[in-house]
Amino acid sequence: MDFDEKAAIAFIRERLPQASKNIDDDEILNVIDMIWDYYDENGFLDLDLADDGPDELDTADLISYAQRLNAKDRQSPLTTADVEAIVMAELAYEDSIEQ
Predict the structure, then answer these.
(1) Mean pLDDT of all residues in 59-77
(2) Is 92 part of any domain?
(3) CA torsion, points 82, 90, 74, 72, in degrees to nearest 10?
(4) Residue 24's Cα: distance from chain center in Å?
(5) Distance (Å, rounded) from C-alpha 58 to C-alpha 62?
(6) 57 Cα distance to chain centroid
(7) What kind and span of H or E run contains 76?
(8) Is 27 contained in some domain?
């Protein structure tokens, strides 16, 4: 199964804590973009299988990265807890489509 943004947003929304249910789809999509930027910057999207790129995702580093980017956006309504919840739900979505 391929990554589908609309399905990812729906999947994430179902897994957000009640306090975060009012987050709009654009904010969720913004965090998804941060995740994929992290993947790109850290070699997870490289297609060269002979590459000595990273083998395992550092989830804490990914969350910290997304939280730092979110903090730079003074207009963002997301808290650090919101960002962490979205990242964890997005990772669960990725796992669900890999099976």
Answers:
(1) 96
(2) yes
(3) 120
(4) 15
(5) 6
(6) 12
(7) none
(8) yes
Q: For residue 60, what are the domain limits?
A: 5-45+56-98
Nearest C-alpha neighbor of 91 from the set 22, 31, 30, 25: 31
- Are 98 and 39 in contact by the 8 Å Cβ rule? The answer is no
Cα 4 to Cα 73: distance, rounded to the nearest angstrom: 25
Q: Which two tokens stand for residue 1?
A: 């199964």
In degrees and rounded to multiples of 5, residue 96 shows phi and psi of -70, -30
Q: What pLDDT digit, counting tens, does each position of 18-60 carry?
A: 988 899 999 999 999 999 999 999 998 876 655 555 568 999 9
Instruction: Give a yes or no: residue 32 inside a domain.
Output: yes
Query: What was the pLDDT predicted at 51?
Result: 53
Question: Model-level pTM?
Answer: 0.89
